[in-house]
Design a protein that fits this description.
The complex is a heterodimer of chains A (about 110) and B (about 110). By secondary structure, chain A is mainly beta. Helix content of chain A is about 0%, strand content about 50%. In chain A, strand 4 and strand 5 (about 45-50) form a beta hairpin. Chain A is globular. In chain B, strands 2, 5, 6, 10, 11 and 12 form a 6-stranded mixed beta sheet that branches. In chain B, strands 3-9-8-7 form a 4-stranded antiparallel beta sheet, with no helix packed on it. The chains are: A mainly beta (about 110), B mainly beta (about 110).
Chain lengths: ~110, ~110
C-alpha cells in the first residue's frame, strides 16, 4: 500500500491564483481530512469527509473547498490565494470504527503565497 | 470545548537522557488520547494511544499513561536517541468529535 499520497510537495502561488491540492489513499478508509500547519502551531482542521459524497467544515474552512466523489480521493481547492494561506497542508485518512480511529497522514504540501 | 495543552519547546537533550513531555487536556466525557510524532520533512505518524483511564500506551520505548484524575497524558522515554529528534504532538478525540491537537513540542537530541 502507498498509504496517503499528496501532490505537489511544494508550490508557490501569486495572490489571487487558484490551485488544487491532490490527496489519495489506497487503504479503503471512510474518513478523510485536510489540515493546515502553521509554524509553531498545531494542526487545524480545514475540512473533512465521512465518506464519498459527504463533506463538512472544520475549524478554518474559509477560502477553501473540497469534494469527495470517490472513496480514494479528496482534493482541496484554493480559490483566490492569499498570503494568509501560506502553510503546510496535510491530508489524512482513517477507518473509524468505535473508538478505533488511527489517522494516517500524507507527507504534506508546502504552499507559499506571494 | 475540547483542548490540549502541551509543554512549550524546544527541548534539547543529550543522548541517553530521560525524556518527559507534559500534556494535559480538557474534554467532556471520556476522550481517547494520542501522541503523534513528526520527523523532519514528513507527515505525522501515530506513536501511541490510550482509550480509557489508567491505560498505558507504549511504542518504540516511549510510554504514556492516561490519568483521568489529573487529566494528563505525559510522554516519557528512559533513554533518548539522536533518531528521536522530531516534533511530538499530543491529541485527543472525544466521542464522535474530530482530533484536537496540541501545538507540538520540538525535541532535539544531541550525540
Amino acid at each position: 500500500n502507498a498509504g496517503v499520497t499528496q501532490t505537489p510537495k511544494f508550490r508557490i502561488l501569486k495572490i489571487g491564483q487558484s490551485m488544487t491540492l491532490q490527496c489519495a489513499q489506497d487503504m479503503n478508509h471512510n474518513y478523510m481530512y485536510w489540515y493546515r500547519q502553521d509554524p509553531g502551531m498545531g494542526l487545524k482542521l480545514i475540512y473533512y469527509s465521512v465518506g464519498a459524497g459527504i463533506t463538512d467544515k472544520g475549524e478554518v474552512p474559509n477560502g477553501y473547498n473540497v469534494s469527495r466523489s470517490t472513496t480514494e480521493d479528496f482534493p482541496l481547492r484554493l480559490e483566490l490565494a492569499a498570503p494568509s494561506q501560506t502553510s503546510v497542508y496535510f491530508c489524512a485518512s482513517s477507518y473509524r470504527r468505535g473508538v478505533e480511529d488511527t489517522q494516517y497522514f500524507g507527507p504534506g504540501t508546502r504552499l507559499t503565497v506571494l | 470545548g475540547n483542548s490540549v495543552t502541551q509543554m512549550e519547546g524546544p527541548v534539547t537533550l543529550s543522548e541517553e537522557a530521560f525524556l518527559t513531555i507534559n500534556c494535559t487536556y480538557t474534554a467532556t466525557g471520556y476522550p481517547s488520547l494520542f501522541w503523534y510524532v513528526q520527523y523532519p520533512g514528513e507527515g505525522l505518524q501515530l506513536l501511541l494511544k490510550a482509550t480509557k483511564a489508567d491505560d498505558k500506551g507504549s511504542n518504540k520505548g516511549f510510554e504514556a499513561t492516561y490519568r483521568k484524575e489529573t487529566t494528563s497524558f505525559h510522554l516519557e522515554k528512559g533513554s533518548v536517541q539522536v533518531s528521536d529528534s522530531a516534533v511530538y504532538f499530543c491529541a485527543l478525540r472525544a466521542g464522535s468529535e474530530k482530533l484536537v491537537f496540541g501545538k507540538g513540542t520540538k525535541l532535539t537530541v544531541n550525540p
